[in-house]
Design brief:
- The complex is a heterotrimer of chains A (about 425), B (about 325) and C (about 300).
- By secondary structure, chain A is of the alpha/beta class.
- Chain A has two domains: about 75-195 and about 350-400, Response regulator (Rossmann fold, 3-Layer(aba) Sandwich); about 200-330 and about 410-430, Rossmann fold, CATH 3.40.50.
- Chain A is built from 14 helices and 14 strands.
- A seven-stranded mixed beta sheet of chain A has the order 7-6-8-9-10-13-14, with helices on both faces. A five-stranded parallel beta sheet of chain A has the order 2-1-3-4-5. Chain A has a two-stranded antiparallel sheet with strand order 11-12.
- Chain B has a domain at about 15-225.
- In chain B, about 75% of the residues lie in helices and about 0% in strands.
- A two-stranded antiparallel ribbon of chain B has the order 1-2.
- The termini of chain B are far apart.
- The longest helix of chain C is centred in the first third of the chain and has 29 residues, at about 5-30.
- Classes of the chains: A alpha/beta (about 425), B mainly alpha (about 325), C mainly alpha (about 300).
- Chains A and B meet through helix 1, helix 4 and helix 5 of A and helix 1 and helix 11 of B.
């Protein structure tokens, strides 16, 4: 027994005290902050205004007096946001949160919602469904959010959907595209401002058909996103699909899968991936000479980060075209949004910054229309105001399942101009 | 009339943390039984947790009542544990550790890729154990906590009974000196296999409770990091002390939850999530260096024979 | 039509990576008698040091290799001197050392994440590629294979012709006898830990250059590296040499088999694990016995 041991009892007491202090600090801090702010706001807004209204009403007539009572909104209106700031979708999330922040800034610049500022509370989900649920619970229970923009990944949305419905908190995801969200969460508190992949899968398949390919290989992420698209594409292509490969994005060695594609004699590959794995996939595909067949790529690989790896950029310029969800072409509201974004952040908006912006704006409009910071009322208002909202990505009306009614896709290509790689649009779907 | 609408219920967040503590405490006790008392280095703990979770979830999705799902989870996890242990228990401690780790990963790959088992990477949703409709969220949480802590209490009692008995004496002896115990005529292999099966069955309980609590499970939730976290709980809390490992579980979970809250109130130059894990890593090394018994030392064995003999000793000291 | 030549070449690449990663692991495991899970972070740290040199200071990739080697060597020395040696002196068991290595891994990995962030980083080097017959090769792959083979030759030279090398082999085989013969075991251990970590760092750097750099990069290679260590016989350098390429071949052939059988290629990693388990159960000394080294 070494002589430098710490006394058992002392250590035990120390740890127990530490835990108690930590918990007390957390809870106490919450009550101190929350209680002071919210109660005051309601008091000021409600009771005083009611008194004023009553007095006025007494002299002008009871009905008019009651009408001048302000809506019951807290002093600060919280909009929560669940974003992937780390993990697989981290790079995407860091850009997308800017769309949310732009919206919040704009709203506050115009005086907030009914004169009260919006407070944005962001939690990182680390692209992990379990952490997403925990972060969501924190936003709902500790911060008292009644509306949340996000989360980003489809499995994350599926992890929190039930809890959102139980606690009646509105969830608006700007990026989750899995068709499963429609089947699992119809007609409830889960909404999305991007179209379901039911359409994108079809689009990819039809593009392959249009261009006359008859020996198609599919190479997709082994997750709801990839599989969702693969299934829809297969429906369209039928027996033209000669090889189906699903891969785990975590392992960065795809050479042998790529060899199989090469050896299968396919003339076209439908590919679904994200940035991190996509870059490696394209780099290795270039090294293996697979740039002599046509690759049709889903929107997960659309974005500047794909050009961080030179081989990936070169490959895309030679062999890849793809789809991405867009606002209808030439939309004024999109151009306005893009200008504001550039002015605020000094860079162009990337994919999904626009749907995130729209999700936040819709949330704010719904709160304003509801007049009350209450999840159920906000949900009903959201369904209503979405009919009249034309945002950065166009008409954002929700169907009864909280999905978008339509979704347009741009067909893009990558070109090399003066040594720089760029994405360009070469068509749309549906035509 | 001013209506004070209560937004969010921080008590629920705390109860939520308590639920996770309960679930992980069961896992910690099961590992404690295997490693703390019997010296078996099980680095595949998450595999049996996963088996319990999936078995229970598949049964629940077929519509069976929760108690049945729980029992199935216990049985299947226990059997898988037993089967896995048979070839492995003859190995030295570090080999056992590596084999159990590799085994866990293989199981996870199977569940991940064989979609007919449980939809592979998409994961499956799980109905809650409590099927009373229309209850408030607070009541639901309290009911959940009741089940979880009842399970924890039962596992604690079973473990305490096992280790504070002649059986417990044997397994502690196996931990200290396997050869000597073998020489004394005990079938060491049989004891080890039994402990491993019981430990795995307990992990199955924890898995089943976990699945019906979080309502959605997928293979990404069962990576080796979970096993490592349980090991942290056991080492910090004190191997061979069940109360200690429960405290260890509470400490590690509280740190994780606390980090998310603390970041709103303290402006640290460091990301609290990273800081928390750096601290745990450091703490583990420090504890292993200066206080390897962990927070709470090994609990003294309390068999009825000892009690009787100690009474006798007290009597004689009076004279 | 399977391009077997390509499969063989890919196996050589995979095997080279595993060799670089496994040499340090097997030697430290053999000498200090416990599996070091922080070895993953030796790989990661070297890769990040290389990244800092190549991308942040823009000095060029050749210096990255040097940086990775040195940085990981320092980390290996620090781990041994500050954590594992003191623990061993205090009577820590194998399991204690294992858990400590996991704790050390947490510490290093999240420190890395704090400094460089958790997002994937890439090296902006364009590796040329060319065809040799039916085989597609890139320059980084050639570099990997050459580095591994050169390293193997140097190690062989060190182990057979130098005093330090003989001391290493003696200490691994029979530490008491070695000490009695005047070998300073602690100095040998320090050298082994430094070299082992340094090679791992270079391996990690190559992996990062070939794919991308994330804090968990070490863990992608660690478990297969363990399989190499076990298959080759713990503590045996030559065993690891043979095992690394065997496993590289098994994995790449396995993928061909999996695709033909219409199974997911995800199982390729399960191949290494199954080999690991079978070896430990049926022939725990692995290949080591063939080379006359302690298992």
């Amino acid at each position: 027994m070494s002589s430098s041991t710490l006394g058992g009892k002392t250590v035990a007491i120390f740890v127990v005290v530490l835990i108690v202090v930590a918990v007390a600090a957390g809870v106490g801090g919450y009550y101190a902050g929350h209680g002071a702010g919210y109660d005051e706001g309601v008091k000021v807004g409600g009771a005083e205004a009611y008194q004023k209204g009553y007095d006025e009403g007494y002299s002008k007539g009871f009905a008019e007096g009651v009408e001048s009572v302000k809506p019951v909104l807290p002093k600060k209106i919280k909009i929560g946001s669940l974003m992937c700031l780390t993990g697989f979708l981290g790079p995407m999330g860091e850009k997308i949160i800017k769309g949310v922040k732009l919206a919040v800034k704009e709203i506050n610049a115009k005086g907030g919602i009914a004169g009260r500022p919006v407070e944005l509370i962001v939690e990182d989900t680390a692209t992990d469904p379990t952490k997403t649920l925990e972060a969501f619970k924190k936003l709902v229970e500790v911060d008292g959010c009644q509306v949340v923009v996000g989360p980003m990944a489809s499995p994350e949305v599926m992890a929190i959907g039930e809890y959102a419905n139980e606690r009646k908190v509105v969830v608006i995801s700007p990026t989750a595209t899995s068709p499963e969200i429609t089947t699992r969460f119809p007609d409830d508190y889960v909404f999305r401002t991007v179209g379901s992949d039911v359409l994108q899968g079809k689009a990819l398949g039809e593009i392959a058909l249009d261009r006359g390919f008859t020996k198609v290989a599919t190479l997709v992420l082994n997750n709801p996103y990839g599989i969702g698209i693969e299934e829809k594409a297969k429906e369209v292509l039928g027996d033209k699909v000669i090889l189906s490969v699903r891969y785990d994005p975590a392992k960065m060695d795809f050479r042998t899968e790529l060899s199989q594609i090469r050896d299968s004699g396919a003339d076209c590959v439908i590919y679904v991936g994200w940035y991190e794995d996509g870059r490696v996939m394209f780099k290795q595909a270039l090294e293996m000479g697979l740039d002599n067949i046509q690759w049709i790529v889903a929107e997960g690989c659309y974005g500047e980060p794909m050009f961080d790896v030179p081989e990936s950029a070169e490959f895309m310029s030679r062999a890849a075209i793809g789809t991405r969800p867009i606002a209808p072409v030439g939309l004024i509201t999109y151009n306005l949004f893009a200008e504001k974004f550039k002015k605020e952040f000094g860079e162009d908006p990337t994919m999904y910054c626009d749907t995130a912006y729209d999700a936040t704006m819709l949330a704010a409009l719904a709160i304003a229309h509801a007049g009350e910071y209450n999840g159920t009322k906000i949900k009903n208002s959201l369904e209503y105001v979405s009919q009249f909202y034309i945002g950065a990505t166009g008409h954002k009306m929700f169907d009864k399942n909280g999905d978008q009614l339509t979704q347009f896709y741009e067909i893009w290509d990558v070109v090399k101009e003066d040594g720089e790689y760029k994405f360009v649009g070469i068509g749309t779907w549906p035509k | 009339m001013v209506r004070l609408v209560k937004l969010g219920d921080p008590l629920i967040y705390i109860l939520d943390m308590a639920a996770f503590i309960g679930i992980f405490a069961i896992l910690a006790i099961s590992l404690n039984l295997e490693y703390g008392f019997t010296g078996l280095a099980n680095f595949g703990k998450v595999a049996f947790f996963m088996v319990g979770a999936y078995a229970s979830s598949i049964m629940a999705n077929l519509g069976y009542p929760y108690l049945l799902c729980l029992i199935v989870a216990i049985i299947i996890a226990g059997i898988v544990g037993l089967l896995a242990s048979l070839p492995a228990l003859k190995l030295k401690a570090d080999y056992l550790a590596i084999v159990t780790l590799a085994f866990g990963e293989i199981l996870r790959y199977i569940i991940k890729n064989e979609e007919w088992i449980a939809k592979g990477v998409q994961g499956i949703t799980v109905p809650s154990a409590i099927t009373i409709a229309g209850i408030s969220i607070r009541t639901m949480m309290l009911l959940q906590l009741t089940i979880i802590y009842a399970a924890l209490a039962i596992c604690y009692l079973i473990t305490q009974l096992l280790v504070n008995s002649p059986y417990g004496r044997v397994v502690r002896a196996i931990r200290e000196d396997e050869l000597a115990t073998q020489v004394l005529g005990k079938d060491v292999f049989k004891y080890k296999a039994q402990i491993f099966a019981v430990g795995s069955a307990m992990a199955g309980i924890s898995g089943s409770l976990f699945a019906q609590y979080v309502r959605l499970i997928n293979p990404y939730m069962f990576e080796p990091i979970v096993t490592f976290t349980i090991w942290m709980m056991v080492i910090l809390g004190g191997p061979a002390n069940n109360l200690g490992v429960i405290l260890g579980a509470a400490f590690v979970q509280a740190l994780e939850r606390g980090a998310r809250i603390v970041k709103d109130y303290l402006l640290l130059p460091v990301d609290p999530h990273n800081l928390r894990i750096i601290l745990i890593g450091l703490l583990i090394i420090i504890i292993l260096m200066y206080r390897p018994q962990g927070l709470m030392k090994e609990s003294k064995i309390k068999t009825s024979a000892l009690e009787v003999s100690s009474k006798w000793r007290k009597k004689s000291s009076k004279q | 039509m399977i391009n077997w030549a390509q499969v063989l070449f890919n196996s050589a690449v995979t095997g080279s990576l595993y060799l670089l990663a496994a040499v340090g692991l097997t030697l430290t495991y053999g000498l200090t008698k416990f599996p070091n899970f922080a070895h993953a972070e030796f790989m990661a740290f070297g890769a990040y040091a290389g990244y800092a040199i190549a991308e942040q200071l823009k000095l060029g990739f050749q210096y990255s290799i040097l940086a990775a080697f040195l940085a990981s060597a320092i980390m290996g020395a620090a781990s041994y001197l500050l954590v594992f040696r003191p623990l061993t002196k205090r009577g820590a068991t194998i399991i204690h050392l294992m858990v400590a290595s996991i704790g050390l891994g947490f510490f290093v990995r999240h420190s890395i994440q704090e400094i460089w962030g958790g997002s994937p980083l890439t090296f902006r080097v364009t590796w040329g590629y060319f065809d040799v017959g039916p085989i597609r090769m890139t320059s980084i792959w050639i570099i990997m294979i050459c580095s591994a083979l050169i390293m193997a030759l140097i190690m062989h030279f060190i182990l057979t012709k130098t005093m330090m090398g003989k001391a290493i082999r003696a200490s691994a085989n029979n530490p008491d006898l070695a000490m009695a013969s005047g070998v300073n075991i602690e100095k040998v251990a320090l050298v082994v830990w430094m070299i082992g970590a340094a090679l791992a760092g270079v391996g990690g750097l190559f992996r990062a250059a070939d794919t991308r750099l994330v804090p968990l990069i070490g863990w992608e290679i660690l478990l297969p590296a363990f399989a190499v260590v076990i298959l080759g016989g713990i503590g045996s350098f030559y065993g690891a040499l043979v095992a690394a390429y065997t496993l590289g071949l098994a994995e790449n052939l396995g993928v061909v088999l999996l695709i033909t059988l219409n199974l997911s290629t995800d199982y390729r990693f399960a191949i290494a694990f199954i080999i690991l388990i079978l070896t430990l159960i049926f022939k725990p000394q692995g290949f080591g016995k063939l080379f006359g080294e302690a298992g």
